[in-house]
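Dear U.,

For the methods section draft, I wanted the exact inputs and outputs in one place so we can describe them consistently. I've listed the two proteins in the order they'll appear in the manuscript figures. Please don't edit the token lines directly; just add comments below if something needs changing.

First protein:
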Amino acid sequence: ESENSAMSDVYSFGIILFEMYSRKDPYDGEDHREVLRLVADPIFNKRPEVPESCPSLVASIMKECLDRTPGSRPTFEQLDLRLKDLSVEHVEPGKMNFSMQDKKLIQAGRNEKLLFDVFPQHIAEAIRDGRKVDPESREIVTIFFSDIVGFTNISSKLSALQVSDMLDRLYIRFDELSRIHDVFKVETIGDAYMAVTNLVKNQPDHAKRIAMFSIDALCAANDTLINTNDPSMGVVNIRVGFHSGPVVANVVGSRNPRYCLFGDTVNTASRMESNSIINRIQCSRRAYNLVHRQYPEISIRPRGKIHIKGKGEMRTYWINEERTPSCNVSVSSNESSQTGLSGTRKRDKYNIEILTRVKEIAE
């Protein structure tokens, strides 16, 4: 904790600017402990979004006041000079009564932003322009899969809204990590997260990127509360797996188009995840060879040969050191093969027995 200073007052001024133009509290409806942690986190650097009605010159001042580095924030003397130079037109909120044409343009802009968030740029441009998207082949990519251990059991103890909130908080962190490591997020299906490298752009270190993303994603999951209103439920535990190989990518459907990957590489990557165990990262031998070459200092150890459904015997590897589960997880006898050497995938029916896990998030 640090004492109040002139720079912290400048930060508060930035928050006041947000409140003036948004007419609401920052982070309204979010868990204050999670907000405090993400605000203080130098990687996530959480800040309120600039309100749509905020003029660009004021928005620039607001962003500078909320800069992560106190020394980079303007002084009040500098702010005073800059604000005096602004006219009424520069500081009044943007028009709230839009014409029908304005509303159409705004909505079109939002739709285009969403399009470019979901699809690779060249695919998004083709869809926007109404052009046909042709299948694309890549000789080598690295595909990541993760899912939440005990998701079915967790879901039975939470409301649908609480499950949605847990996944939202987790995937916000995964998405930020995907930007940091330049990993392309393919999709999320329930508790499963799929990402890939060396697909939408050439990345010679694609296996290294997925390995680093996997390690950080595991840490992020283990730092995400299952239920912010009941910390005793513990934090999220995941399984992770990845594999490298060729794929074909294509847009499927027209009404709700999806960007899909096809090929045995996808199946094998999924098997690496489903045959992994709690809080561990498993990769195939081919992925291991690439990671070892691209990131020789990483900690990897062989798991040995395991039976993979549809593949037979495969030699696999553990990435990084073993992490202690955040809570005791007992596996029923008819599911013991899930964490053993069998490749038969069964949905999670873990019985979570919480001992103690009350974690302070606010710094």
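Second protein (the one for the lower panel):
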Amino acid sequence: MRLHILVIGICFIGSGCGMQPLPGEISKDRYFEEGVEARKRSKGEAPELGLALAGGGIKAADFSIGVLQGLIEAGVMERVDAVSTVSGGGYAALWYFSRLLNPAEYERNSLDVVDYHKFARMFFADCIPIKYKDLNYVNPLWHKIADPTSGICPKNMTNFAPDDPEQKAFNSDPVRYQNHLRGYQDIFAWNWRRPFHYEETTSDQGRRNVKIEFTGSFALTALSSIVNFVPNVLFDWEVPVSSSRNQYRAGILRAFGATPTNCEQTGGCVFSTRPVGSEAFVRDDLTFKLLRQEYEKGIIPLWIINATAGENRDLFSAIAHPGQKPLQLTSFEFSPYGSGSGLFQYSRQSLDDLRPWEAVTVSAAFLDAQQKVYPVWWNIGMNVTTLNWGRSHRNPHVQWVETILHKALPAPLYLFHRRSGDSAGDFVNIRLSDGGQSEDLGAYALIHRKLPDIIVSDHSSDRSGRMDDVCRLKNGLAKDRGDDPHLYVYFPGLSNLDEVCIKDSNLGYDIFNWEHPIVLGCVTSDRDNYDCVRKQPMEQDHFQHIYLIKPSFPGSESRHHLARTLLSATRECGSRKGKDNCADAVSSAPRFSWTHHWGILSPSLMEVFMAKSKTERGRFSSRKKMEVVLRVLRGDDLDVVSREAGITAATVSEWRDQFVASGQAGLKSRAAEGRDDELVRLKALVGDLTMRLELSREAVQRLRGGVPLATGRSTR
């Protein structure tokens, strides 16, 4: 009774305990429209193309950087209007925007558009690790033709060869950006032990320094747990005292935010160590204000960083309602135009003025007591041991007196006070954690912005093929949530996706055996539009194309074999001898048309079917046999050709011998009808010239439109 009187008295002094208005509050619809008019002014058209980089830690980051490289080299990235990231995808975006906007790394005038040819040469230049040289994984000659800095790496770990006359291409440290990424993959390493190394994690067990480091980390965590007891266990002050959290944040920034050390200019690079880079720009100068300025100039896409906020954390909900809330409520985003979520509403102000790098580390806080994937006792253990990496902010919707009262409540009383609910004023704090705990693809922010086309880079659940993140989005959008309409996610090429997405289903897709890594799908308000055909607005209010990129390994039979066609274009256009064939190579390289009508496409272009195993692919047609044989006769490596074709080298050799023998027999039995032969030759010549004319015309049109023909692609 006395407690109730005390609360009433405090509320009276504090002018009431009602929900406070949000500073800078803006309606949800208006928030998602922010930046559209600025984009129209700078680029002449409304935003159309979005890119979602999904979560998944370091693995997702590396995959996303590869996707960024591919989109840049294909001429697609310059058309991207918005980039939405979660967790590891945010690492990749932090790396991308830090390179692009740091004038010390990428020089340009303030109004200059990005020269993506230059960007690719500077930041994606790489070499082939020397351990691959004799394994026939790659053909070094192709990379030397495409990019003079490619080829086999120097023997040292830094890929820097200052005094080696045989490695002149590496005298100026040209591949330092990719080398830095590769060497600083261990984000939990401590700076004192020179964290730059190429050792696999399975090799760490026998290394003395690593054992010392593990012991030190354990000791610091134990010490943090002692300090943590009063503020975060006995009371709910949510003071960030976790040493492992600080170590995690520092590792992300060191690997993906820092400017790599230029060994040519600074020295200090020994055989196996590249010094830690500078973090000054990403910590101090990379702000949401800068991102907004550059976006409104039309220089960069809009960067949206997604976290999770608002999962119930009270004792009753942990027992009675342990599952996740709808993603429409808990998906919390930061952007150059503010921050917010469906639960906590939207504001033109960024929550507590967080910087992009801080938002990225929050978006990646996968260890946090807010999680709903594992049982509730995991959350208790995380809180006690300080493996609680999220970040808490005072809820601006709540009166300060409520905050004071909550901080005064000891355990277990605070577990029943303002830690759960379905409205903005139900929580005393806004707890931010890994965005994957709400929507791991990063697609939700782009769907709400109604961009017609969305590319999704998703590597998650690839071992089992469960499509967990796709299913979370699909099931979440289909549920009715307030004023959000029912939306349906379809992928015509993924048979029985509804059954796969059933909870506890054991079904999945053989992703690594797909013929093509891109799956075409859609988000639509039409429940019956299973084929993803764009209809009139009166028939469906909402429709977006989805291009889902998965880490499959395309077979050589695929008509859309990206690696083969891009490599061909690189080789032909990068060498002097191949200039005449450049137009042919470019015309056969894959293209992306983001505004086409799918209704006129054949099913083979709309769907990606489950590929048969290589032993079940049946007989090769004579045309395919000839393609394989001609590659070998042109000088391509026999093992590489056979591996890409999915057949043995002996079979390729047999086909080659048969081809040569039949050619010799044909020469011996050739009829002496010179006139007929000449007519056949002339017809073939006319056909060839006609084809080349069309290809050349297309190439000229692309050049006039400012679209690059091709750029060199290096191997990471």
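Candidate sentences for the figure legend, describing the second protein: The first strand starts at residue 25 and ends at 26. The chain has a mean pLDDT of 78.

Thanks,
Y.
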